[in-house]
Design a protein that fits this description.
33% of the residues lie in helices and 20% in strands. The protein contains 13 helices and 16 strands. Strands 2-1-14-13-12 form a five-stranded antiparallel sheet, with helices on both faces. A five-stranded mixed sheet has the order 10-8-6-3-11. α2 packs antiparallel against α13, α3 packs parallel to α8 and α8 packs across α9. The longest helix has 21 residues.
């Protein structure tokens, strides 16, 4: 009889298979951390699984829906990679209204953006946030235009050089304001490129250019490179700054763009519906109870389970090394640069913190120093207040330290090894021979 599954760890131990040890020390080690007096009243959601998902090494409320904070960005970027593609390029166009006579336009310049998330110094380097706009301005000048007898108007949805901790990324008012900021920066780049602009700049909304307008030039984000990696700014490259720096604006605009690109509707809800459906149908993740009301995790009503988080992280890790490369490395960079120093380089994960609301999170995988195996984990800490729809402060420093200490404790244990049973044979004398994927475990 050929089997395509692993036997439970207790069965292996009962059979006396060499190398199989009790994994009870792992729950004890993790619980010892979570039972500390200053954090024991926090609601913990916790799951550690093997790389293939066939073995659970620690579970606590693993199927309970919790507020993920910036772990929401795991889901946003995963959906972006899956639905748009890791080489996806963001598009921005320049139109003019009115008439053109040689090098002179009598009308306005319309800057029409579609959620390009790369326009900030985290991507282009300090002082160079306008590089993408500069490229487009130079294209306008190269098209033979030297004078605009009008203004620059920003339309669509654009986010220019905003802080990673910024908020207010969804309303029409905030969109119009953001578009006005991008239009002002574009006007400056037009002037620097040798184009005279008679009037000022403003912001508007809507993705359709004014009737009768004429396309001048198109810019794709991939026409410029990331300042640190030197690679073209496709979606995968842009998400390095998004995830390692936990950039709220980038994540929120990405979720909006997913909705806009697929359905034509520029809302979180449109993006979330497409994302959740993709997790369920393409990643085979049980999305029951999953709620995504933004892309960044600032929304306190987002809900996911540790199990859903582990499943998405595992499936995306198998599919896309470039997606994995967007996340912080413990003790090395991003929001984990100052954490997990004692197991430096072993953990790749996404952080999350809503300290005044009551949520702290950490999810990803751990490359174990003893076994050499990879283990996926998700850790959520929520206060009673945030779980019931309100706010209740959480001690972020203490809670993050507990998460880190629990992973360090796990790193000091030897998780039980569960080899795959490939074949059983019964000899004429009644002896049963077990053959495993590791020949060293084959026994009679």
């Amino acid at each position: 009889m050929r089997l395509h599954q692993q036997l439970p760890l207790w069965v292996l131990a009962a059979l006396g298979i060499p190398g199989v040890v009790s994994s009870q020390e792992i729950p004890l080690a993790v619980e010892a951390v979570l039972d500390r007096a200053n954090i024991r009243d926090i609601n913990w959601g916790y799951l550690i699984e093997s790389a293939d998902g066939n073995a659970e090494y620690y579970g606590r409320n693993a199927d309970f829906a919790m507020v993920p904070a910036s772990n929401t960005k795991i889901f946003t970027t995963a959906a972006g990679f899956g639905l748009l593609g890791e080489t996806y390029a963001f598009r921005t166009r320049a139109f003019h209204t009115g008439t053109r006579n040689g090098a002179t336009v009598t009308g306005d310049i319309i800057l029409l953006g579609e959620h390009d998330i790369t326009w900030h110094s985290d991507v282009f380097g300090s002082g160079n946030a306008a590089r993408g706009l500069r490229t487009l301005a130079q294209k306008v000048r190269a098209a033979g235009i030297t004078q605009i007898n009008g203004a620059v108007v920003g339309q669509g949805a654009m986010i220019y050089n905003k802080s990673s901790t910024g908020t207010d990324h969804s309303s029409l008012t905030s969109t119009q304001n953001r578009n006005a900021e991008a239009a002002a920066a574009f006007r400056s780049e037009l002037v620097a490129a040798g184009v005279t602009v008679i009037n000022g700049s403003s912001g508007a909304t809507g993705f359709n250019p004014p009737a009768g307008s004429t396309l001048i030039a198109t810019y794709l984000s991939t026409e410029n490179n990331d300042v640190e990696t030197g690679r073209p700014l496709d979606l995968a490259e842009a998400c390095i700054a998004l995830n390692k720096g936990s950039h709220n604006g980038m994540a929120d605009y990405l979720m909006r763009h997913i909705g806009y690109k697929i359905t034509g509707v520029d809302t979180y809800q449109a993006g979330a519906q497409q994302s959740i459906a993709w997790f369920n149908t393409s990643l085979d993740v049980n999305t029951t109870g999953m709620i995504l009301n933004d892309g960044s995790g600032l929304d306190r009503t987002n809900k996911v389970t540790p199990k859903q988080t582990v499943d998405v992280f595992r499936e995306m890790t198998l599919r896309s090394p470039r997606w994995v490369a967007t996340f912080p490395i413990g003790g090395v960079d991003g929001t984990l640069g100052g954490r997990l120093a004692s197991i430096r380089g072993q953990v790749i994960a996404k952080t999350g913190t809503l300290p005044s609301s009551g949520s702290v999170s950490l999810s990803g995988f751990h490359n174990h120093p003893i076994t050499g195996e990879r283990y996926f984990f998700s850790i959520y800490a929520n206060t009673d207040g945030i779980l019931t729809g309100g706010t209740q402060a959480i001690d972020a420093t203490t809670t993050r330290q507990a998460m880190d200490d629990s992973l360090v404790a796990f790193a000091g244990q030897r998780p039980a090894f569960a080899p795959d049973l490939l074949l059983t044979r019964t000899a004429s004398d009644g002896t049963i021979r077990l053959e495993w994927n590791d020949p060293g475990f084959t026994t009679a």
